Amino acid sequence: MSTNIITTVWKEKSQFESDNPSGHAFTMFDKSQDNGTVVGFAPKALMLSSLAGCSGLDVVSLLTKMRAEVADFKIEVTGELTDEDPKFYKHVKVDYHFTDSELQPEKIQKAVNLSVTKYCGVMEMFRQFATVEIEIFLHAV
């Protein structure tokens, strides 16, 4: 079994610095507060980034193994929060955008499906509290 440990430290106002098992740190804050010139991230939005990163890493690895690399790949994640506290994501839409002059739709679909249903643990966590919708967009150049 693998374990990750992070430490998050209050810095000032509504700002926290969190480390990562990779050894890097980042700042989180309440975006509704005045944080001056501090560059940071909102905790709930980071959850959406984690979802995109987890699935994206799977998809890139799978496409490489399938010899179906693409020129460009991006993921847009939209999360809809509940109205009442504690606010959490109740619906999440994950849009996968692939661009290349020689797209291989079947392999792309297979890679995304494997990530969504088998490999991405963050996706599985999201499914515990939100409905997750997936859509694939193919852009030929």
Automatic annotation (TrEMBL):
It comes from the Bacteria. Pfam families: OsmC (PF02566). InterPro entries: KH_dom-like_a/b, OsmC/Ohr_fam, OsmC/Ohrsf. SUPFAM superfamilies: OsmC-like. Gene3D superfamilies: 3.30.300.20. Transmembrane segments: none annotated. Coiled coil: none annotated. This is OsmC family protein.
